[in-house]
Amino acid sequence: xxxxxxxxxxxxxxxxxxxxxxxxxxxxxxxxxxxxxxxxxxxxxxxxxxxxxxxxxxxxxxxxxxxxxxxxxxxxxxxxxxxxxxxxxxxxxxxxxxxxxxxxxxxxxxxxxxxxxxxxxxxxxxxxxxxxxxxxxxxxxxxxxxxxxxxxxxxxxxxxxxxxxxxxxxxxxx
Length: 174
Ligand SMILES: CC(C)(COP(=O)(O)OP(=O)(O)OC[C@H]1O[C@@H](n2cnc3c(N)ncnc32)[C@H](O)[C@@H]1OP(=O)(O)O)[C@@H](O)C(=O)NCCC(=O)NCCS
Hints:
Elements: E1 5-9, H1 15-31, H2 43-51, E2 54-60, E3 63-71, H3 76-81, E4 90-98, H4 107-121, E5 126-132, H5 136-144, E6 148-153, E7 162-168
Parallel strand pairs: 4-5
Antiparallel strand pairs: 1-2, 2-3, 3-4, 5-7, 6-7
Bound molecules: coenzyme A.
């Protein structure tokens, strides 16, 4: 990774700047009419979602420019919505965001690798993710990361149905 960038675990004091990053990153999804929570979530929601699992941030010059959260087990809300989130030893990928100015440089891939290692070290055997069905580019991205579609859900209050995808963790993820 670029030496100007550094990765570290989320701290509670990151909640406000991470909220700003999430709003900036998810704006394109909001513009597609997809009201993902991260489009306009408040700071307390960011803090709760980050602390609901292991969250990492990437910093550049003291600014948070990317983030990813891995939850093990998945959130209660998700576990109520799909049996796929109740599968034993399954982690869940959440709040993936990269600053629009730093896209396509492997930041998400770096965090994804870190998240896989973290989950594998905690005896997770698979990872799930959910995203809006109309966000075809994200479904393709997750397919390229090895995920396959396993269910469809509808989060209360969302303008879209979501696809649920899962991927086994193997020795190469450790
Ligand atoms: C999705 C997102 C996190 C990708 O971040 P990124 O740092 O640009 O991604 P990377 O540079 O690490 O690329 C990772 C891989 O995904 C591919 N990829 C990246 N963005 C993609 C896109 N929009 N569509 C399809 N593939 C994409 C890259 O080609 C790369 O593939 P490779 O590993 O085979 O080379 C970023 O575009 C973002 O923050 N989007 C808005 C928020 C969002 O959609 N979050 C996910 C909600 S479920």
